[in-house]
Write a structure and sequence with these properties.
The protein has about 240 residues and is of the alpha+beta class. Helix content is about 25%, strand content about 25%. The termini are far apart.
């Protein structure tokens, strides 16, 4: 009976140990992030992202990363990527994409961060897009011992080095793009049409300097002629009066 009891005892213990290992094992991240210097407030840190291929018929064409608090899109510089892929900054993160990678091939790219924030860990929510239009969202934040079905990649950081301080934000960090130009609602001030202007103004607007001088000459002649006629009439009348006397 002792042998029987001794032989049966290890089975429950083995099952219990297996259950503990299963519950404690972290969920496999389908997008992973790594760094050689994962330390708070470290500067010019390279981060490597690896998006695992999950499709048997389409290749990854794009990976969008939502940055955690403390890192702005202006702090990101592309260092390595699949052939033809380019980086595009967004309002809350960045996108790296281009021609689809080979089917079944992981998409690996590297970016440089100007400075990591002072935090214990950084969560990079990531969205994958495939050439057939399929989208995989790895945006769930792991909590406790429960691994979510679509976990976001997490980078754990070491404590900041003694004397490390946050540096000034990037020049375009937090900049708001200028709105697209739109038609103005304020009526513009335009000159009146020629038909609505006074005749004198219309005539003056239609002539150059020469026209202005001609107008002055014509006006002068119009004044002198009546004056001369009046003078001649007065002279004739005076002579007539003298002859009568």
């Amino acid at each position: 009976m002792r042998d029987s009891g001794a032989g049966a005892a290890p089975a429950p213990r083995a099952l219990a140990l297996t259950a503990v290992l299963v519950s404690a094992a972290p969920a496999l991240a389908h997008v992973e992030v790594e760094s050689e210097t994962p330390q708070a407030l470290a500067e010019n840190v390279s981060l490597t992202f690896e998006a695992e291929a999950e499709s048997d018929s389409a290749g990854i064409t794009e990976t969008r990363v939502i940055l955690p608090e403390g890192i702005s899109p202006a702090d990101i510089t592309l260092q390595g990527q699949p052939k033809g892929w380019k980086l595009k900054a967004g309002s809350d993160g960045f996108t790296v994409g281009g021609p689809p990678v080979a089917v079944g091939t992981n998409a690996v790219f590297k970016v440089k961060v100007r400075q990591l924030p002072d935090a214990d860990e950084l969560v990079f929510k990531t969205i994958e897009t495939y050439s057939d239009g399929k989208v995989s969202r790895w945006i769930e934040i792991p909590t406790g011992n429960t691994g979510p079905e679509q976990p976001a990649p997490v980078l754990e950081l070491k404590a900041a080095a003694p004397g490390a301080r946050p540096i000034a934000p990037s020049p375009d960090a937090g900049a708001t793009p200028a709105p697209d130009p739109s038609p103005s609602t304020t009526p513009s001030t335009t000159s009146a049409a020629p038909s609505e202007q006074a005749p004198e103004a219309t005539e003056a607007a239609g002539k150059g300097d020469g026209g202005g001088r001609t107008g002055l000459v014509v006006t002068g002649v119009a004044v002198v002629v009546p004056a001369a006629a009046g003078g001649a009439w007065w002279l004739l009348r005076r002579r007539s009066g003298s002859s009568r006397s």
